[in-house]
Amino acid sequence: LDGGGLYRRCAIQEAGYFSDRNLHSYEEFDLAVSGLHHGLADEVEHDPAVVAEQAEVGVGATVLVQAADNLEDTANMLRVARAHPQVAGVVAWVPLDDPTAAARLLDGWQLAAEPVVGVRHLVHREADPDWLLRPEVQDGLAVLAERGLTFDVCAETAPLLRHVPTLAGRHPALSLVVNHLGKPPIRERGWQPCRE
């Protein structure tokens, strides 16, 4: 359940997790944990009903997004992508703080024709709020830009969100995806803080 799964709508709804009725697959670790907690582990594997549900609402393809900062999660998603043609791409994990290793992994996946379309790192879980600005991480982001991949930024705090323009300035060829719009605290504080 390390991510890399397509989830049945009924499992997601039963876990009380799902809020967007138009998207019937989801790639978050906490969803998988919630599903396990609710005894829905059997629902998390690829069920043909998922493809039918997606087609029903006009979803023609799915992109799997990493949920753990490890290679096992990425390997699982690539396995799923090979087995299911509706998976159009994988947002993988690589060690951005080791640019040589990141390049080696990305080049290997490219040679194997794996559908890696981007990279994500759970930066909001790093102890250092300036982890993204470290020189070795900057070199890792340059590796992504050189290969035309996206970088999904988990900018869930104000300091991390403030790094996004810095990253864009330093890496103009790198497409940045701000995950969940930075998870603004709308539930707790309403829209106003986000407008500022």
Report on this model:
With 196 residues, the protein is of the alpha/beta class. The protein contains nine helices and five strands. It has helices spanning 9-14, 29-37, 48-56, 71-83, 99-111, 135-146, 158-170, 186-189, 192-195, and strands at residues 62-65, 87-92, 116-121, 150-153, 175-178. The chain has a five-stranded parallel β-sheet with strand order 1-2-3-4-5, covered by helices on one side. Strand 4, helix 7 and strand 5 (175-178) form a beta-alpha-beta unit. The longest helix has 13 residues, at 71-83. Mean pLDDT is 78; it is low at 1-12, 14-31 and 33-45.
Structural category: alpha/beta
| Element-level helix/strand string | HHHEHEHEHEHEHH
Count the beta strands.
5
Radius of gyration: 17 Å
Detail the poorly predicted runs: 1-12, 14-31, 33-45
The helix count comes to 9
Instruction: Please state how the strands of the largest beta sheet are arranged side by side.
Output: 1-2-3-4-5
Give the overall pLDDT as a whole number. Answer: 78
Overall 3D shape: globular
> How far apart are the first and last residues' alpha carbons, in Å?
38 Å
Strand content: 5-15%
Helix proportion range:
40-55%
Largest sheet: 5 strands, parallel
